[in-house]
Design brief:
CATH architecture: 3-Layer(aba) Sandwich
CATH superfamily: Vaccinia Virus protein VP39
InterPro entries: Methyltransf_25, SAM-dependent_MTases_sf
Shape: globular
Pfam families: Methyltransf_25
Radius of gyration: 16 Å
GO molecular function: transferase activity
Strand content: 25-35%
Structural class: alpha/beta
Keywords: Transferase
Length: about 210
């Protein structure tokens, strides 16, 4: 899906994903001191707004101007400030100083574009900063619920770690993996609770 497709999807009076953060974000940042944060592919801005409410200086980046505008509105409704950027995360140039936290949640890209987005994510990460990524795991296609049905847009923790290793070499930085693997997510449906299978990777830049 390109920006126009996402614009069409987000062009509703209500939030598609509601206003709450992704369930994995709060526990993954609970041990971090609020600083600067960027949510890459922020969609309607729910994660960036939640971070701002928790004291982070938050930025949301997405190539959907409709989604970004909804994020800006959500921030205003919650009484917080955030910076909003309309840009493609595969080519966006982050600030030189980087961020203390880079969040990437459910970015649906093919392998080549995903690698480019991971270069952006690492480039956006300041020394000492943390990168948290959650995406639809490849196993979800056959054993989980929902998510993209095209395997080209699914991933594994190994895929992401390989992408990050390539980014380390290209950008001459050093990352330490703190967490990587599959996680389960409960999804409420008309037929009851179902289980989705995601990938979660958390790394820290040490140099």
């Amino acid at each position: 899906m390109d920006a126009s497709d996402w614009n069409a999807r987000y062009d509703t009076s209500e939030l598609i994903w509601k206003g709450e953060p992704n369930q994995f974000l709060p526990p993954e940042v609970a041990d971090l001191t609020p600083g600067t944060a960027v949510d890459l592919a922020c969609g309607e801005g729910r994660n960036a707004v939640w971070l701002a409410k928790k004291g982070w200086t938050a930025t949301g980046v997405d190539f959907s101007d409709v989604g970004v505008e909804k994020g800006r509105k959500l921030a205003a409704e919650n009484g917080v400030d955030a910076t909003w950027v309309v840009a493609d995360v595969t080519t966006w140039e982050p600030p030189v100083d980087g961020f203390d936290l880079v969040a990437v949640f459910y970015l649906q890209l093919g392998a080549e574009e995903r690698r480019a987005s991971m270069i952006t994510a690492v480039r956006a990460l300041g020394v000492g900063g943390t990168l948290v990524l959650v995406g639809h795991d490849l196993l979800n296609l056959t054993e989980g619920y929902g998510g993209p049905q095209n395997p080209a847009f699914l991933l594994t923790a190994e895929d992401i770690l390989d992408d990050l290793t390539a980014a380390e070499v290209l950008l001459d930085v050093e990352l330490v993996t703190e967490k990587s693997g599959r996680v389960e997510r409960s999804v409420t449906t008309d037929d009851g609770e179902r289980t989705a299978i995601d990938t979660l990777v958390r790394v820290r830049r040490v140099a």
